[in-house]
């Protein structure tokens, strides 16, 4: 394939860890990705060489820290095809969604789907404000229902995930974009499971907003990104008030700072942003098309393997082309958490179990809780084979 996964794996120190005498097989990247040395080193370097607050001091360390922080913004912007001023650093995708929900004036309702992460359901308000499109039995978007609800309701914002974190489905966001534009609605994309795994360009998506979390794309925890069209961000009021989001304050008045800084109140996660910039550098050095091709290859192997295992049920599409790096499965007669514990304790294979912060999705398809193996650029064919062999053994349990 031209992709040297062995070389990539050398960049991740934690992959040297052994659990119960076995090499650790980490398959929970949809929740949090592992961190490569360049990201770790960037964070350590900030603490050891440049530790200071930003945008506040004229002394050398403050100037260096400010430059590193804004350089990270520049890197993220170029990574997405955006302008620097359109990139707002937040704690995570959840905060980004809450920011839009609180600050974007809407004259109408929000349309989303039942397959969303809870963070793209709860911030929008009660059931009267939020219209949820139905799903098919396979957990795919019911496009007929989505179109009907767009036509029958006063929809001001369409907010959907690019890739399902529950089933790994690559959703038809381009089609939904056209529908949103036709009814004059804003278009928001939750890119938490797409930006880390495939090429994503905000101009190609033609979205008004895009959100994602740094910790899912090799970056530190506690830093995420909201992309917003500059003309919309200019009109929006700030989410939080405090230091650094103002240009001047008087006893009876204040002046907001320009975007993006008017949305970044208080001392931010400086080292987190710098680490995210390093993660972007690392991903670009590999190439997002290569990351996607590698994951698609592994998912294809996993899909073929699961089909041959008795008592193991696959959820979602059986096409690697239509999935991100997520494989969701269950074992008949064995509760999901028990299956995940067996994989961890007996085979040192670490997967997620539960509803994956998408309970309405799993209730809609009637599956109950499931296990989710989520793959990334550091997973190997041998690890996928190990998962299949473990599942084959566990499938024979009474």
Q: Short summary of the structure?
A:
By secondary structure, the protein is α/β, with parallel strands linked by helices. The chain folds into two domains: 5-27 and 287-395, Aspartate Aminotransferase, domain 1, CATH 3.90.1150; 40-285, Type I PLP-dependent aspartate aminotransferase-like (Major domain) (Aspartate Aminotransferase, domain 2).
Characteristic terms for this protein:
398 residues; Aspartate Aminotransferase, domain 1; Aspartate Aminotransferase, domain 2; 2 domains
Helix count from the secondary structure assignment:
13
Query: Largest sheet, described in full?
Result: 7 strands, mixed
Q: Could you give the order of strands across the largest sheet? A: 4-10-9-8-7-5-6
The top-level CATH class of the largest domain is Alpha Beta
CATH topology-level fold name of the largest domain: Aspartate Aminotransferase, domain 2
How would you spell out the order of helices and strands? HEEEHHEHEEHEHEHEEHEEHHEEHEEHEH
The number of distinct structural domains comes to: 2
Return the CATH architecture of the largest domain.
Answer: 3-Layer(aba) Sandwich
The share of residues in helices is: 25-40%
- Structure classification: alpha/beta
What does it look like?
This protein is an alpha/beta fold. The protein has two domains: 5-27 and 287-395, Aspartate Aminotransferase, domain 1; 40-285, Type I PLP-dependent aspartate aminotransferase-like (Major domain) (Aspartate Aminotransferase, domain 2). The protein has 13 helices and 17 strands. The protein has helices at 5-9, 37-50, 60-80, 93-103, 143-152, 173-182, 202-205, 230-235, 270-286, 288-307, 336-347, 359-365, 381-395; strands at residues 18-19, 22-23, 25-26, 87-90, 109-113, 130-133, 155-161, 186-190, 209-213, 224-228, 246-250, 253-256, 312-315, 326-331, 349-350, 352-354, 370-374. Strands 4-10-9-8-7-5-6 form a seven-stranded mixed beta sheet, sandwiched between helices. The chain has a four-stranded antiparallel beta sheet with strand order 13-14-17-16. Strands 1-2 form a two-stranded antiparallel sheet. The protein is globular and about 75 Å long. The chain starts with a helix and ends with a helix. The mean pLDDT is 96.
């Amino acid at each position: 394939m031209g992709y040297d996964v062995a070389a990539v794996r050398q960049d991740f120190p934690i992959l040297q860890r052994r659990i119960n005498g076995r090499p650790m097989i980490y398959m929970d990247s949809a929740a949090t990705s592992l961190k490569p040395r360049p990201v770790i080193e960037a964070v350590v370097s900030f603490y050891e060489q440049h530790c200071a607050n930003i945008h506040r001091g004229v002394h050398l360390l403050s100037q260096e820290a400010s430059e590193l922080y804004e350089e990270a913004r520049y890197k993220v912007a170029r990574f997405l095809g955006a302008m620097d001023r359109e990139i707002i650093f937040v704690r995570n995708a959840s905060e980004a969604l809450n920011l839009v929900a609180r600050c974007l004036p809407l004259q109408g309702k929000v349309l989303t789907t039942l397959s969303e992460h809870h963070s793209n359901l709860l911030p929008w308000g009660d059931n009267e404000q939020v219209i949820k499109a139905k799903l098919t039995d396979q957990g795919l978007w019911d496009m007929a229902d989505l179109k009907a609800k767009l036509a029958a309701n006063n929809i001001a914002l369409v907010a959907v995930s690019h890739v399902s974190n529950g089933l790994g489905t690559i959703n038809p966001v381009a089609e939904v974009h056209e529908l949103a534009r036709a009814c004059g609605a804003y278009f928001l994309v939750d890119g938490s499971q797409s930006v880390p795994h495939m090429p994503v360009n905000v101009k190609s998506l033609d979205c008004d907003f895009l959100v994602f979390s740094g910790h899912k794309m090799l970056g530190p925890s506690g830093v995420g990104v909201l992309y917003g069209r500059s003309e919309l961000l200019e009109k929006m009021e700030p989410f939080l008030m405090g230091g650094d989001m103002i240009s001047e304050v008087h006893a009876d008045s204040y002046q907001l700072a320009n975007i993006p800084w008017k949305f970044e109140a208080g001392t931010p996660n400086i080292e987190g942003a710098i680490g995210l910039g390093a993660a972007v550098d690392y991903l670009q050095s590999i190439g997002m098309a290569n990351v996607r091709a590698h994951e698609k290859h592994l998912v294809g192997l996993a899909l073929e393997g699961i089909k041959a295992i008795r008592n193991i049920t696959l959820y979602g599409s059986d096409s690697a082309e239509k999935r991100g790096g997520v494989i969701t499965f269950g074992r008949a007669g064995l509760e999901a958490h028990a299956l995940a514990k067996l994989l961890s304790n007996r085979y040192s294979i670490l997967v997620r179990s539960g509803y994956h912060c998408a309970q309405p999705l799993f209730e809609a398809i009637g599956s109950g809780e499931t296990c989710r193996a989520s793959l990334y650029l550091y997973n190997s064919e041998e690890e996928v084979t190990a998962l299949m062999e473990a599942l084959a053994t566990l499938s024979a349990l009474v």
